[in-house]
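#struct-help
A.M.: can someone run this one for me? Single chain, 119 residues.
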Amino acid sequence: MKKHLGSTIALGIGVLSIVSALTKLTSTPIAGIIIILGALAYRSAKKRKLGEISPSSLRKALEVCAIVIIIAAVLLQKNLTYHIATAPVPTVIIPIWAIIAYFVIALKKQKAEKKENPF
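D.P.: on it. Structure tokens below:
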């Protein structure tokens, strides 16, 4: 569990963000959805790098789909410049954080397994 503490916290924050957006009729749950998608993509890539799961092409495709959905959720907003000016955290900072976190772990080289010395 300690290996995935950050993504677990992010998932909790994403769920709380969606719940809080649903209680306010003026808010949108986009930020929560972006946090959840980013955390799931990150966790999947990290599990692949740690060797906890087998690296399948379907898993990699789903991770890329999550990142594409994050980008689309931001870029397809009406009045994007207005949203960037009035609410930069859910519009710019959270998506960039999710994308950078994913690419840092996805592009990180896998650690070589330790070779045991027979002597």
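A.M.: thanks! The mean pLDDT is 87.
D.P.: also worth noting: The chain is about 70% helix and 0% strand.
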